[in-house]
């Protein structure tokens, strides 16, 4: 007998659906407060968390395609939240750094992120939240 396929028990479907639902709660914050896209938020957060990087580094850390990184960097640069500095040895590479204004936006959004994360943690409970983080790390390293 063949096992019946259950879409709502299929892990990739469940993870994607849940990720979207959880992400939408925070999306409302960065979208409403700063009119940012998800890609722009990820780029800003990555630069704020890890410091100056190349677009390739940002793409690797965020999982964003290079065209999305490029568009996000251009948009954030237009707000004067970041600056690019050409590499002296390889002019094709630019080091991307947050400006003071970008650092301020990052600080504001991370405060909101901490509050949002606490809300999710409270909803799940400490033990389940920590277990979920551990299980997701295991899946990521699969």
TrEMBL record:
Please give the SMART domains that the UniProt record associates with this protein.
Answer: HTH_MARR
| Any one GO biological process | response to stress
HTH marR-type domain spans which residues? 8-141
**Care to name a GO molecular-function term for this sequence?**
DNA-binding transcription factor activity
The record, for PANTHER family, names:
MARR-FAMILY TRANSCRIPTIONAL REGULATOR, TRANSCRIPTIONAL REGULATOR, MARR FAMILY
Identify this protein by name. MarR family transcriptional regulator
Q: Which organism is it from?
A: Thalassospira profundimaris
């Amino acid at each position: 007998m063949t096992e019946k396929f259950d879409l709502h028990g299929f892990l990739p479907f469940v993870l994607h659906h849940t990720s979207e639902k959880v992400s939408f709660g925070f999306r409302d914050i960065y979208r409403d407060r700063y009119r940012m896209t998800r890609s722009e938020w990820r780029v800003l957060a990555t630069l704020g968390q890890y410091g100056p990087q190349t677009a390739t580094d940002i793409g690797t850390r965020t999982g964003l395609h290079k065209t999305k990184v490029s568009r996000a960097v251009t948009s954030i640069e237009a707000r004067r939240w970041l600056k690019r500095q050409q590499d002296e040895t390889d002019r094709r590479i630019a080091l991307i750094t947050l400006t003071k204004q970008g650092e301020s936006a990052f600080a504001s959004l991370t405060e909101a992120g901490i509050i949002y994360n606490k809300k999710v943690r409270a909803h799940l409970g400490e033990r389940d939240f920590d277990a979920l983080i551990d299980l997701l790390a295991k899946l990521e390293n699969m």
